[in-house]
Amino acid sequence: MIYFLSDAHLGSLAIERSWAKQKKLIEMLEMMSKDAASIYMLGDMFDFWLEYFIHDPKKREFSPLCKKLRELTKRGIHIHFFTGNHDMWTFGGLAQMTGAEIHYEPCTIIRYGKTLYLAHGDGLLPSDWQQLYPKSVQKQIKRFIRLRKIFQNPTCQLLYRCLPPKLGNKFGYAWAKRSRLKEFAHPCPYKGEDKEELVLFAKDQEKQRNHRDFYIFGHRHIELDLQIASGSRVIILGDCFKQWTYAKLDHHGNLTMHNYEQ
Ligand SMILES: [Mn+2]
Fold it and tell me: Comparing C-alpha atoms, which of 152, 154, 6, 22 is closest to residue 80?
């Protein structure tokens, strides 16, 4: 079996009982480990993860999860960690702590006879997005792209990593909290097949003859399983702090969505 999950936003200052969520996540991983060959975590598992040049005591908070992942990799389960827009700043530390393989970019894999496109999902747009959206939405998208460029800029990253962790975390967690509170105050439900960026992105890929059986994303905190073409589905994974949803691909190439309630 192959499992897919995303968006635990561990450590978030806007989510109550963060330690209990981490515990539940560990139990969920343990459940998956019973028959998992690989586990794919598709981004934003941490609300803010940045590796400084100086020791960061805050990381200790996540050591139960890191220990669990280390144990699973030792047992021979492949753990894949995709960076999201909240936890892209790992420079080898997380891989060392957990034994996970880190993915900084979307990737296409073939498993059990199926082609899967995997990505966190932030910043993915159909190629004709500038014609598709009204000016106001275009402005928002452009702002997001600009911010993403700054986040991914090596010089900016280097400078941020020089900060004392206490200060860097203060900014980082406050920024993440603001975006979480914004989401809680104005939830953005599924926009529909003709507006949801990730669906449009996948449809565009199909149109360009880059066929995949499954497009699996996180990022949006909504649960979606949508057929977009014959033999092609878009899956958006939901989250692991409220909905506790995940996807599972079995040996026959069947992909199913599940809800972890325990
Ligand atoms: Mn995200």
Answer: 6
